[in-house]
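Work Package 4 report. The design task specified in the project plan requires that, given a folded chain encoded as structure tokens, an amino acid be chosen for each position. We show below one input record used in the internal validation round.
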């Protein structure tokens, strides 16, 4: 395994900017979001009627009374998937819940603890290559891996985690910072919106310095 060199200066910045408690990221109202994707989709799946934080999404997946489809839709709402991407992922023609049977089977196996994060990632990658997972790329299927698995030990690899990792260039950040890997990933993701967390603001500034910044929406 290649151990990447850790940028000590950026690690110091990461630690300094993460001394304050991280605000809870709250996504969109799942039922309202799904009803915007397709009229009645949220109602038909009895999705939650208030926005969830991360721990609430974890608990929702853990409750077997909730169908895997309702968990999946709730996760996409938490992650802020655009309505257009959601329609491409979940609708086929005018039929709701159009995600392929193969994709749903993989998600069920993750939820049952039959796949670890590495094998789950490989399965999703194959589904993408076979065009059986439209509009759900790594930023979103890693959310599924994290929330669906009973251990919640996957890593959400969205753009902010990737940019933070590029700046930090690390393999051993959890040991260096004294946080468990899940907490490191959460803090790398940080918190955005109209009032971004200090680390998110720093990454936005540094990303421009690195020359990779492009116009983005939270």
């Amino acid at each position: 395994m290649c151990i990447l060199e850790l940028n000590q200066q950026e690690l110091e910045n990461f630690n300094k900017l993460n001394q304050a408690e991280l605000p809870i990221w709250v996504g969109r109202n799942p039922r309202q979001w799904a009803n915007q994707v397709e009229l009645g989709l949220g109602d038909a799946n009895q999705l939650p009627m208030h926005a969830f934080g991360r721990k609430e999404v974890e608990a929702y997946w853990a409750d077997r009374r909730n169908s895997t489809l309702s968990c999946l839709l709730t996760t996409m709402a938490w992650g802020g998937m655009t309505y257009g991407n959601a329609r491409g992922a979940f609708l086929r023609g005018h039929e709701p819940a159009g995600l392929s049977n193969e994709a749903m089977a993989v998600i069920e196996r993750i939820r049952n603890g039959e796949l670890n994060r590495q094998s789950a990632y490989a399965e999703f990658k194959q589904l993408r290559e076979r065009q059986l997972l439209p509009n759900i790329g790594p930023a979103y299927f890693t959310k599924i891996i994290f929330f669906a698995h009973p251990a919640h030990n996957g890593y959400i690899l969205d753009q902010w985690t990737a940019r933070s990792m590029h700046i930090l260039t690390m393999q051993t950040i959890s040991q260096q910072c004294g946080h468990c890997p899940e907490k490191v990933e959460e803090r790398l993701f940080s918190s955005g919106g109209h009032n971004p967390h200090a680390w998110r603001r720093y990454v936005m500034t540094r990303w421009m310095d690195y020359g990779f910044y492009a116009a983005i929406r939270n």
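The radius of gyration is 18 Å. Validation will be extended to a larger panel in the next phase.
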